[in-house]
Amino acid sequence: MKMNDYFDRMKTVLGDNYDRFLDTVDKPPYKAIRVNTLKMSAEELIPLLPFAGDKVPFCNDGYYVTADKLGKHPLHHAGAFYVQEPSAMSAVTALGVEPGDKVLDLCAAPGGKSTQIACALAGTGLLWANEIVRPRAHILLSNIERMGIKNAVVSNMTPDDLCNRLEGFFDKVLVDAPCSGEGMFRKDKEAIYEWSVEHSMACAERQKAILNSAAAAVRPEGILVYSTCTFAVDENEGVITSFLKEHPEFELIDTGCKFGEPTMEYAKRIYPFNGGEGHFVAKLKKHGGKPYRGAMYTYFEPEKEERDAINRFITDILRNSAFRHIHVIDERILNLPDTELLPDMDGMNILRAGVKLGDFKKNRIEPHHNLATSLTPYEFKRRLVLNCDDELTARYISGEELELDFWIEGWAVAMVNGITLGLGKAVNGRFKNKYPKGLRTLAWKDLQI
To answer: How far is Cα 436 from Cα 405, in angstroms, rounded to an integer?
Structure first.
């Protein structure tokens, strides 16, 4: 009976396109990757990935793929690409991020759209990625780290608390709202049996609340994009219609995107027959409202003793120091994003601001994995050069200690095909593996794609 309800609703939504939709129901889902242009260009990466095919229509740097288990590929470990459902790339494309923007991704985990925003920012401006569910917020942080993003703040806050605190602060805000997930049924066959009209309606109420919170964070003349991965009218057009009634300061505007099917004149729907699993995207512009009037972040240099120790540590590992905003908190050493763009964060639940360089230990500083992921290998004094299809690379990712056939001594970076993979410490001809245990693949043979 529930499935009859679902297909009846789809028939109403799709009209003349219903038969086209039915033709896709039993076909395999689309799979895609998005190139992390912070690490390497598509021209450099795609020739290294024999499973990559045509470009997706939703993002300039997205490509369809045919392989599974791509999270085990060495270049995925190194942050060269993000595995992402193709239509999920559409929302950030519609957002129209430009270098220098301050952008909030309000419901950000696991990080696909946040990392896409970071690529569009190209190391400038500020990315604020928030997730209300703490375990998911840590997954988000791990992906921000892996992709080498330097100008991000990752928070674990309710949308209401965050957006009220940062009223009028952001140029652009993305709300990729939790939804009933109808657009993902081909990927998750079990989810279709858990679907109900009641669940969809409950999702719509939650989405309205999140979107109402997000409205406050948008600066005057700023942009708000709302997206879901469901086909439900209540969660898409219904939410936008309700929002516009409550917020006359917002106007629905053209997404500027050619893909998908038009709805509400300016919004977009994406179906499997458009080349992606399913998405809804609406773009709104805010006229009026209050600009941010809160305090900005106050930066303090570390104490001289700490600063001297950090300088010695950096000089030992790196060729040059490019760190302008080093901050020490609870033995953790961070390099903050541009502090002129940071709001006051006192009392906020922040998991990470900027890059974690290392930790103060007894009589020493231990470098953090994030130090490696945020830099190019050529910024390090010592390097272990690997290739993505070498067994040695797989053994490094699995956590093995490696034997060196050349002489280096001290902290070094392992690099794969020109980008950083992780850290190790060379001692007496051995490379002591410092790849984080939580990221390791247990057996190197599992890495074969």
So the answer is: 24
Question: Which phi and psi (to 5°) does residue 292 adopt?
Answer: -65, 125
Task: List 416's β-bridge partners, or say none.
Answer: 386, 419
Given CATH 2.30.130.60, say whether it is the number of domain 377-447. yes
Q: For 294-348, write each residue's pLDDT tens digit.
A: 999 999 989 999 999 999 999 999 998 779 999 999 999 999 999 999 999 999 9
Contacts for 259-266: CB closer than 8 Å, 24+ residues apart: 259/57, 259/58, 259/90, 260/90, 261/17, 263/236, 263/237, 264/237, 264/240
Question: By the 8 A CB rule, do 297 and 344 touch?
Answer: yes
pLDDT at 51 over 80: yes
- Encoding tokens for residue 300? 């303090």
CB 92 within 8 A of CB 279: no
Q: What is the DSSP letter of 266?
A: T
Distance CA 229, CA 210 (A): 16
What is the Cα–Cα distance from 360 to 333, expressed in whole angstroms? 8
Using alpha carbons only, give the angle 215, 221, 224 rounded to the nearest 5 degrees.
40
* Annotated catalytic residue, options 59, 107, 229, 257: 229
CA distances from 163 to 169, 219, 351 (A): 9, 11, 17
Delimit the domains of the chain by residue range.
Answer: 2-30+85-286, 304-373, 377-447
229 is catalytic: yes
Strands (E) in 338-393, as ranges, are 350-353, 355-361, 364-367, 383-386
What is d(CA 290, CA 300) in angstroms, rounded to the nearest whole number? 29
Q: Are 410 and 316 in contact (CB under 8 A)?
A: yes
- CATH homologous superfamily for 2-30+85-286? Vaccinia Virus protein VP39 (3.40.50.150)
